[in-house]
Amino acid sequence: MAGNGVFVDIIEGDVFKYYSEGEWKKSASGKSVAIINPTTRKTQYKVQACTQEEVNKVMEVAKAAQKSWAKTPLWKRAELLHKAAAILKEHKAPIAECLVKEIAKPAKDAVTEVVRSGDLVSYTAEEGVRILGEGKFLVSDSFPGNERTKYCLTSKIPLGVILAIPPFNYPVNLAVSKIAPALIAGNSLVLKPPTQGAVACLHMVHCFHLAGFPKGLISCVTGKGSEIGDFLTMHPGVHCISFTGGDTGVAISKKAGMIPLQMELGGKDACIVLEDADLDLAAGSIVKGGFSYSGQRCTAVKVVLVMESVADTLVEKVNAKVAKLTVGPPEDDCDITPVVSESSANFIEGLVMDAKQKNATFCQQYKREGNLIWPLLLDNVRPDMRIAWEEPFGPVLPVIRINSVEEGIHHCNASNFGLQGCVFTKDINKAILISDAMETGTVQINSAPARGPDHFPFQGIKDSGIGSQGITNSINMMTKVKTTVINLPTPSYTMGKL
Asked: From CA 206, how far away is CA 69, in angstroms rounded?
């Protein structure tokens, strides 16, 4: 159970503590932040409302801990990460329980997220040893006008203190995707979890605590964004920010100053279906991509652009699969569970009502109970409808009928987002041409968009983000190149005569 067993130290009374200096602490504010269960719409957990003074202390400690951690042998850093991964997977049940109650993630998917996170940490440890254990050696006479009088040695060194801010929908997985690369690279890490998902994050952090990382190297502060959000992202002690979320990321990027940013800020992932597509494959992928975790995924299929000649058949096949989706509480492993908050449900409903007023075809009856919204496919959507452009982050999927590939590409590229997209066709030549034309960070051919596997590059363009994620890219982003140049008195040539 959450907060019990090995996790007993992370809670006092009914309020979970924050983590600093290797200890679980209560905030001097004496205040807490409530976490609302999306299913019951009642308070499920409470976390500390940390103060700006406590953030300052965390940053001070993180800076000091990073200096000694950077001197820790690479193999030792990897060893501790492997240990944390094993502990994380060992305690998957209580962490998954938090995900079910905090963000209404179906029980089986919650367990999968924790196990996947452990695998990510282990893979990062191995990849970090390979990447960081190898430098470059350059010689000066490869550039015109130079003799071989300079030897340049390059290596990767840590940035310092990394601020990690994951989103509610994958609070554990997207936290460790930032934590593990930061640590293997020799950085310290300050985690600001999302409110919904904070308790799962605290349990995850305790697994790193149990692994024996040095005190102060990892911190986790909880609280209200209005009180410590800007204070954290603009803090002079932060040397890099890795953020996954929505519009808040744009504000962060404008305030953060001259530090590296790694940001993934959402998408309106388009699925283009051509006449020659395998429609059964396309329909299955659309339902999985559009309705998995109730559509609350940055890489969910957000709009289907299907050629008119096959649109009726595709919509029929998708509707048949939507009818089989189960709807209900996450504890029952239902396919469609309550969306994360009432405000989110209200936003989704606003998009649906706009489409209704503008005469979209409702393939199912719109139904909502509290935060629970039944899956809905909207056919004959037009570009003048909000749902054609805005990201619902819920189980509502629009279908736009197109008369040419160019029309589909144009709609995709007219979006402010550019995270991922997908194309279904049996013609690989067409697929490659369309992929090259789509202004997105990734294009999936004959499959729904997806972030993983976690070692693949993952990036967006336009309003979908800055930089690239994925284990290797994250390690590289959280380091900087250091060069040492040896100047020789006379040119030196290998195997040459003195």
From this structure: 19
Supply the pLDDT for residue 496: 57
For the full predicted model, state whether its pTM sits above 0.90. Answer: yes
Strand positions, DSSP E, 193-342: 218-220, 240-244, 261-264, 270-273, 303-307
Q: How far apart are CA 414 and CA 440, in angstroms?
A: 11
Alpha-carbon separation of residue 210 from 6, 213, 321 (angstroms): 9, 8, 44
Q: How far apart are CA 176 and CA 162, in angstroms?
A: 13
How far apart CA 291 and CA 434 sit, in angstroms, is: 25
Rg (CA), the chain: 25
Instruction: Tell me how crowded residue 266 is: count the other CB atoms within 10 A of its CB.
Output: 24
pLDDT digits (tens, 9 = 90+) for 303-344: 999 999 999 999 999 999 999 999 999 999 999 999 999 999
CA distance 29 to 42: 23
**pLDDT band at 155, cuts 50/70/90?**
very high
Question: Is residue 35's pLDDT more than 70?
Answer: yes
Say which of 102, 113, 127, 264 is annotated catalytic. Answer: 264
Query: What's the token pair of residue 102?
Result: 């905090």
Q: In whole angstroms, what is the distance from residue 233 CA to residue 104 CA?
A: 28
Q: Nearest-5° angle of CA 273, CA 279, CA 282?
A: 60
264 given a catalytic annotation: yes
The predicted structure's pLDDT at residue 2: 84
Q: How large is the average pLDDT for residues 292-301?
A: 97
Is the pLDDT at 495 greater than 90? The verdict is no
Which residue among 207, 298, 363, 412 is the active-site one? 298
123 vs 84: CA distance, rounded Å: 12
| Cα–Cα distance measured from residue 73 to residue 184, given in angstroms and rounded to the nearest whole number | 10
Q: What is the pLDDT of residue 497?
A: 60
- Is 21 noted as a catalytic residue in this protein? no
For residue 284, give Cα distances in angstroms to 74, 125, 279, 290, 299. Answer: 44, 35, 8, 10, 16
Cα distance between the two ends of the chain? 73
The CA-CA-CA angle for residues 4, 333, 318, to 5°, reads 150
Sign of CA dihedral 299, 305, 309, 315: positive
Span 358-408, pLDDT tens digits: 999 999 999 999 999 999 999 999 999 999 999 999 999 999 999 999 999
Cis status of the peptide bond prior to 236, with omega within 30 of 0: no
- CA separation for the pair 123, 438 (Å, rounded): 31
The per-residue pLDDT for range 42-76, each reduced to its tens digit, is 999 999 999 999 999 999 999 999 999 999 999 99
Euclidean distance between CA atoms 291 and 326, whole angstroms: 11
Closest to 59 measured CA to CA, from 198, 211, 217, 179 = 217
Please state, in angstroms and rounded to a whole number, the distance separating the CA atoms of residues 303 and 339. Answer: 19
